[in-house]
């Protein structure tokens, strides 16, 4: 624990210095445009043999952006890239991100989950790191790091965090059989919403919600009994699945 605390302090001191960079350096480059950061990550993923990733909480990419990003990662995994990803536990409470984690994990991206906040970063082949200036996903600006001393510290941080993280399968067992839409419905059930309120939130009919709820009860093996509230049991399964 003392080693981990010392590593975290050294890394934070290093990041504070790097955040003050205003000019381009050969081995540490400041990229302020998120689109440019994303393009660089895609380019690196096309040839990398190994990727270490840590993802903090933050806004969810929707629609075409999410589909394109997920497709690019799947293509890299099919090509044979080895990938390990650490995600903050809050991401598993978002149905879109939870579905992404399940899909990529099934395709070979090993996932682990951690409760403490983590630094948003990607490390390609122990040679290039993309490090967000703020630890939050989607925050503007990133550092592109090729300096070996800094890379070694970032890799060390990743490995220490990986070692104390939880296997994602342990977190997903209660809800892993649900579809993305069913997860959205179940998340709203866990918030105490009625079928009508869920339908309005998801822009679907109340009858459609009822069908999803019935499917959720079936997949979670929650029988109808006079003594139990099935919605409460389903909500409990969801919260156990995303919070351990």
Would you count the extended β strands for me?
Answer: 8
Spell out the helices and strands N to C.
HEHEHEHEEEEHEHHHHH
Quaternary structure of the protein: single chain
Radius of gyration: 20 Å
Rounded mean pLDDT is 82
Q: Strands across the major sheet, in which order?
A: 1-7-6-5-2-3-4-8
- Please summarize the sheet with the most strands: 8 strands, mixed
Description of the structure:
The protein is α+β, with helices and mostly antiparallel strands. Helix content is 52%, strand content 15%. Strands 1-7-6-5-2-3-4-8 form an eight-stranded mixed sheet, with helices on both faces. The chain is elongated and about 65 Å long. The two termini are 23 Å apart.
List keywords for this structure.
52% helix, 10 helices, alpha+beta, 8 strands, 244 residues, eight-stranded mixed beta sheet
